[in-house]
Each structure stands twice: as structure tokens, then as C-alpha cells.
């Protein structure tokens, strides 16, 4: 996977976590940097682990589903992207709650909820020639940075771009699913060559 494609993938994977962090930041009066960094590291760690889990699941199932892998990736990414877009369109900025001191358990649940896309991407990466450790590290670091920034900027920008970030992330995931399906059905050039 080329560095530009890896950076694009990592950025796309961090958009829903960034949107969640903007919402959390918007719900608090002024988050402290230490709290934002702790939240960023938690989200980044979980977001970095889940693609490896998905990659392992994809490799285990590769023999059984190799004829349908492109359809599975397309449906998963399309559904996940549509869910992100719908969530971004539904979310009202006035429903945010004060999150200045959230429990570790609630933060972990939120991080797991936003890392479902990374799990799906991990499954998709099992069918592409990619260094999963490097991809997972890039996704984890990018998410940690984006969540930390989102928490700090949330009280200023959360209501303005929080929903749009999640919508953009959903559209990117749907486009990725469409590209995978197109490559398997119509494109003579393998997707790996583009990545």
C-alpha cells in the first residue's frame, strides 16, 4: 500500500471518532488537554487493534468466501457508510451531554462503537496485499491525534462540523466499497495496483 493511500485510509477511518470527539468536546465547558489526550490514546488504541482482528477474520474466511469477497466487502462498507451518514444527519447538537468526566467504561464503549468501520476495513484488507501492522499503526495514530484535536476543538466547532465529519466519513466508506466491487466486476487493473 502506497503512503498516500495509507494516509487516506487512516484519515477516513478516524472521521467517525473525530466526530464523536467533537460532540464530547462540545458537551463540556472546556476540556483539559490531559483528558483529551487520554481519550485520544484510548480511541487510537482500540481503532488500531480492530483492523488487525478484522484482517485475521478475513484471512480465516478467505478460502470459503473468495468468490463472494467483493460483494461482502461492498455490502458491509455500504451499510456502514450509510449508517454513518444517517447518524450524522440525525444527530442534533443540543442532545450532547456534559462529558467532562466520563467513566473509562463509557469511553471504551464509545471507542468500540466508532471502531466498527476499522474492523470492516480489516476484513477488506485481508483480500489486498497490505502490511496490516503498518496500516493498523497508521489508523491508530491518526485516530489518537484526531480525537485529541476533536476534544479540544469541540466546544468551539462541534456543532458546526461534527455532523459533517461523520457524513463525509460515511460517504468515503461507501465509495471504497463501490471501488472494491467495481475492481472485481469490471476493472482490468487490480485494486492493489492503485493502493
UniProtKB/TrEMBL annotation:
Superkingdom assignment: Bacteria
InterPro entries with a match to the protein in the record: Mntp/YtaF, Put_MntP
KW Nucleotide-binding (keyword) present: no
Keywords, comma-separated and alphabetical: Cell membrane, Ion transport, Manganese, Membrane, Signal, Transmembrane, Transmembrane helix, Transport
GO molecular function: manganese ion transmembrane transporter activity
Transmembrane segments: 68-86, 107-127, 133-153, 165-185
Pfam families, per database record: Mntp (PF02659)
UniProt entry tagged with the keyword Zinc: no
N-terminal signal peptide: 1-19
Membrane topology listed for this record: Multi-pass membrane protein
Any one Gene Ontology cellular component term annotated for this protein: plasma membrane
Cellular location(s): Cell membrane
Chief place where the protein resides: membrane
Entry function: Probably functions as a manganese efflux pump.
Family: Belongs to the MntP (TC 9.B.29) family.
Protein's UniProt name: Putative manganese efflux pump MntP
Species this protein is from: Kushneria avicenniae
Amino acid at each position: 500500500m502506497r503512503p498516500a493511500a495509507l494516509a487516506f485510509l487512516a484519515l477516513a477511518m478516524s472521521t467517525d471518532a473525530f466526530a464523536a470527539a467533537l460532540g464530547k468536546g462540545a458537551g463540556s465547558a472546556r476540556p483539559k488537554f490531559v483528558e483529551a489526550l487520554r481519550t485520544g490514546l484510548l480511541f487510537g488504541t482500540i481503532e488500531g487493534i480492530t483492523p488487525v482482528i478484522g484482517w485475521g477474520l478475513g484471512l480465516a474466511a478467505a478460502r470459503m468466501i473468495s468468490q463472494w469477497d467483493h460483494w461482502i466487502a461492498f455490502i458491509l462498507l455500504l451499510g456502514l457508510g450509510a449508517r454513518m451518514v444517517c447518524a450524522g444527519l440525525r444527530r442534533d447538537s443540543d442532545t450532547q451531554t456534559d462529558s467532562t468526566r466520563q467513566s473509562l467504561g463509557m469511553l471504551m464503549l464509545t471507542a468500540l462503537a466508532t471502531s466498527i468501520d476499522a474492523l470492516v476495513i480489516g476484513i477488506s484488507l485481508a483480500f489486498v496485499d497490505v502490511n496490516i501492522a503498518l496500516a493498523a499503526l497508521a489508523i491508530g495514530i491518526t485516530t489518537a491525534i484526531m480525537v485529541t484535536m476533536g476534544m479540544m476543538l469541540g466546544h468551539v466547532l462541534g456543532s458546526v462540523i461534527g455532523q459533517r465529519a461523520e457524513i463525509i466519513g460515511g460517504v468515503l466508506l461507501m465509495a471504497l466499497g463501490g471501488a472494491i466491487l467495481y475492481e472485481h466486476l469490471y476493472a482490468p487493473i487490480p485494486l492493489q495496483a492503485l493502493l
